[in-house]
């Protein structure tokens, strides 16, 4: 308990940075992910290809490598700290998974919805925005929630580039106090505060959707 | 030799060193996927069977592990377990951490797979005189596993990517060895990162193609 009391502000700061990075990455990756999901369902073959290549590349390489790329290479041209580099990497990496989720959501919306909207005089983009996407997001909500949980967990990657997040601060406290056991348990509890309720809520949503179907 | 630039990083020793790291990456991934397949199946079946108290208990532990960052589990196994007198060498600490984490992921997949099997399969098997365990092993699991092949391969892809996290405890896998190589000379950073990226990509993309092939065959 002393351990928690003496280092509370450190843990809290780390928790704040973890949350901040996760929320920024969530917003950016939702926008990017939706964009690349739509690219993959447009009629033009080459546009589909671009969307597909983006998703395959970011899904199949480790997040750590993307982070190092921004921290070691891009930062030489555009100065940025570890937090920024890590958050950008996190956004790009997650956007590939969100693109897959949203694409599956769009495909599961009955094609009659798009046709009906078009027949009623809406343009492709209007129909996409007002008719198809809202339904697609509703279907995809549980998987999107799980992606956010992964995002929070993956933000621990910031510790590799001095990103001041929970994992980084935990390592600092562990190194200063030598109480690795207590420190990592506390860090775990901080992560669980975010991820566990979300996870149970997503399981609940999934069950609800399954019963509705 | 200055003009060659990009290729300077790839001396025979460096290439051999990097490929050795790839061996460790693949080794950790394969051992972990086998262990977590076994443990994940047991945990998934326990959750599916809804034994009083026990299933709830196992399910809760499973949820806790699943919702922690893998990096934290790796640090915990390597830096905190020694406080309890459990000392593991780096390689095995990584395997234990990754297997623990992946088991909790696979348990969810196994449970989902079992729940997707038609109730009539259980009833039919039981009516034909098979015991509970026999029904599970000979009738239900084989059908469930077939459906689970694609998600299990995507877990293997995650494993291959996630081994890079073990450089946090200085496991000499591919990403770590890449870092050692570009620490010699900062002009090596870009070429080494590109080559490592390519190797990971080819390995994982190949695996995802196999998953897609199974997916289309089973559909």
TrEMBL record, chain A:
The chain crosses the membrane at residues 15-39, 60-78, 181-201. Residues 15-202 form the ABC transmembrane type-1 domain. Keywords: Amino-acid transport, Cell membrane, Membrane, Transmembrane, Transmembrane helix, Transport. Its main location: membrane. GO terms for biological process: amino acid transport. It is found in: Cell membrane. GO terms for molecular function: transmembrane transporter activity. One of its GO terms (cellular component) is ATP-binding cassette (ABC) transporter complex. It comes from the Bacteria. It is a multi-pass membrane protein. CDD domains: TM_PBP2. SUPFAM superfamilies: MetI-like. InterPro entries: AA_ABC_transptr_permease_3TM, ArtM/GltK/GlnP/TcyL/YhdX-like, MetI-like, MetI-like_sf. Belongs to the binding-protein-dependent transport system permease family. This is Amino acid ABC transporter permease. It comes from Leuconostoc pseudomesenteroides. The lineage of its organism: Bacteria, Bacillati, Bacillota, Bacilli, Lactobacillales.
From TrEMBL, chain B:
Residues 22-211 form the ABC transmembrane type-1 domain. PROSITE patterns: ABC_TM1. GO terms for cellular component: ATP-binding cassette (ABC) transporter complex. Pfam families: BPD_transp_1. This is Amino acid ABC transporter permease. The keyword Membrane applies. SUPFAM superfamilies: MetI-like. It is a multi-pass membrane protein. One of its GO terms (molecular function) is transmembrane transporter activity. Keywords: Cell membrane, Membrane, Transmembrane, Transmembrane helix, Transport. It comes from Leuconostoc pseudomesenteroides. The keyword Disulfide bond does not apply. It comes from the Bacteria. GO terms for biological process: amino acid transport. It is found in: Cell membrane. Belongs to the binding-protein-dependent transport system permease family.
């Amino acid at each position: 308990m002393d351990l928690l009391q003496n280092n509370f502000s450190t843990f809290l700061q780390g928790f704040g940075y973890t949350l901040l990075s996760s929320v920024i990455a969530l917003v950016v990756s939702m926008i990017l992910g939706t964009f690349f999901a739509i690219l993959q369902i447009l009629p033009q073959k080459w546009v589909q290809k671009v969307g597909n290549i983006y998703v395959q590349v970011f899904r199949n390489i480790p997040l750590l490598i993307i982070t190092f790329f921004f921290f070691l290479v891009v930062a030489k041209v555009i100065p940025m700290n570890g937090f920024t580099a890590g958050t950008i990497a996190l956004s790009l990496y997650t956007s590939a998974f969100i693109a897959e989720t949203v694409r599956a959501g769009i495909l599961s919306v009955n094609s009659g919805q798009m046709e009906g909207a078009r027949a009623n005089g809406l343009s492709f983009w209007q129909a996409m925005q007002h008719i198809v996407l809202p339904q697609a997001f509703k279907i995809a909500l549980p998987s999107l929630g799980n992606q956010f949980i992964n995002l929070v967990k993956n933000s621990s990657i910031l510790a590799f580039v001095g990103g001041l997040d929970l994992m980084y601060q935990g390592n600092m406290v562990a190194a200063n106090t030598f109480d690795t056991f207590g420190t990592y348990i506390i860090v775990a509890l901080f992560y669980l505060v975010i991820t566990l309720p979300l996870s149970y809520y997503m399981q609940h949503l999934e069950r609800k959707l399954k019963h509705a179907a | 030799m200055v003009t060659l630039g990009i290729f300077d990083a790839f001396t025979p020793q460096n290439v051999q060193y990097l490929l050795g790291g790839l061996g460790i990456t693949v080794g950790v991934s394969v051992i972990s996927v086998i262990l977590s397949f076994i443990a994940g199946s047991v945990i998934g079946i326990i959750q599916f069977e809804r034994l009083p108290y026990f299933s709830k208990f196992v399910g809760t532990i499973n949820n806790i592990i699943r919702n922690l960052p893998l990096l934290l589990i790796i640090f915990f196994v390597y830096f905190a377990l020694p406080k309890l007198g459990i000392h593991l060498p780096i390689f095995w600490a990584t395997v234990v951490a990754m297997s623990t984490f992946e088991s909790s992921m696979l348990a969810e997949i196994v449970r989902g797979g079992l729940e997707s099997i038609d109730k009539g399969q259980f009833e039919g098997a039981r009516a034909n005189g098979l015991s509970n365990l026999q029904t599970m092993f000979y009738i239900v699991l084989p059908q469930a596993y077939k459906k689970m092949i694609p998600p299990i391969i995507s877990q293997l892809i995650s494993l291959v990517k996630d081994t890079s996290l073990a450089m946090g405890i200085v496991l000499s896998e591919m990403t770590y060895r890449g870092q050692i190589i570009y620490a010699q000379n900062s002009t090596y950073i870009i070429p080494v990162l590109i080559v490592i990226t390519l190797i990971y990509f080819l390995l994982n993309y190949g695996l995802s193609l196999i998953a897609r092939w199974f997916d289309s065959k089973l559909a």
